[in-house]
Amino acid sequence: MTYRTPRLGADADGVAAAADLLRNGQLVAFATETVYGLGADARNADAVARIYEAKGRPSFNPLIVHFADASRAADHVDLPRQALELAATFWPGPLTLVAPLRPGHGLSSLVTAGLDTVALRVPAQESAQRLLAAFDGPVAAPSANPSGRISPTTADHVLAGLDGRIAAVLDAGPCAIGLESTIIGWESGRAVLLRAGGIAVEDIAEVLGVPPGPPDTAGITAPGQLGSHYAPGAAVRLNASAARGAEVLLGFGEITGDLSLSKSGDLREAAASLFDRLHTLDATGRPIAVAPIPERGLGLAINDRLRRAAAPR
Ligand code: TXA
Ligand code: MG
Q: For strand 117-121 and strand 37-41, is the pairing parallel, antiparallel, or unpaired?
């Protein structure tokens, strides 16, 4: 089978070429010990928007940010003491930790879907280690499959789903674990299991002294209030062609508004700016009206997010 997306060997040249592509805001799939990730520079909003575009994801989920080592990861967040213990035991490895972002962290708000926490991982796979060290920056990477399809554990799986939509795949053979990382977060100072995965919960319990609890879902009454979703405090009205009353207007294309998601009507630019614009308008304390966004390409994920923001709470 011949593909349009080049397959890079996991040697020094291949790793250097992959790091250059990431620096240029391109998408590169790479092996980790869990599954192949679809990587982009986590500081570059346009590059992160391309991840959603390539996967055809109909919603913006927060992504995991990958680092070469724990000290680089710790630059961006305040890791709770227990997180430091888990990191010391399981990093590099198939463990993801969710922690509060530090001011000036520099990550695109599209990576975190507007949340004030971020998921961090230091993979052990050798070529992933070399790529992350060569790039020397944060790499956002969900699994490298089209939305709704099974996670890829070989470069062929990646190409079968994403050929022509990504700049390259760094082929390091099959993934050793083949199952996504275990995700641990903290709620009110208590460790919670956000996703079961490559590291057994028993092994985590041994380090913590207690098993991680279930995430707290009590008190959730609407999708916009789910802990993993950011929703503005003010009321949101969709498909608006003009502001009414006290509203501030978030424009798109020909509808200029007080702020615009993209004056040229570019959906990738709109996705890249969405959470920053919502935060800025939310800070005004006024209700937010939003111009219509076309229901195609990245518009699906943008509209999904806006509908949640506008849902009654
Ligand atoms: O093994 C893995 O973890 C793979 C490889 C490529 O590293 N990556 C992966 O990423 O599975 P992804 O994007 O498919 O999974 C990200 C999940 C989200 O669905 C969400 O459940 C959780 O991580 N997550 C990310 N940020 C979060 C946050 N701030 N708070 C809570 N959960 C978060
Ligand atoms: Mg996935």
A: unpaired
Measured distance between the N- and C-terminal CA atoms of the chain, rounded to whole angstroms? 51
**Buried/exposed 116-154: b ≥16 CB within 10 Å, e otherwise:** ebbbbbbbbbebbbbbbebbebbbbbbbbbbbeeebbbb
- Residue 233, Cβ neighbours under 10 Å: how many? 9
Residue where the block lists tokens 């992959």: 18
For 167-220, write each residue's pLDDT tens digit.
Answer: 999 999 999 999 999 999 999 999 999 999 999 999 999 999 999 999 886 544
Q: Is 214 exposed, middle or buried (0-12, 13-18, 19+ CB in 10 A)?
A: exposed
Residues with CB under 5 A from ligand 2 (ion): 143
Pocket of ligand 1 (CB under 6 A): 32, 34-35, 37, 61-64, 96, 98, 112, 115, 117-119, 121, 141-143, 180-181, 183, 185, 194-195, 228
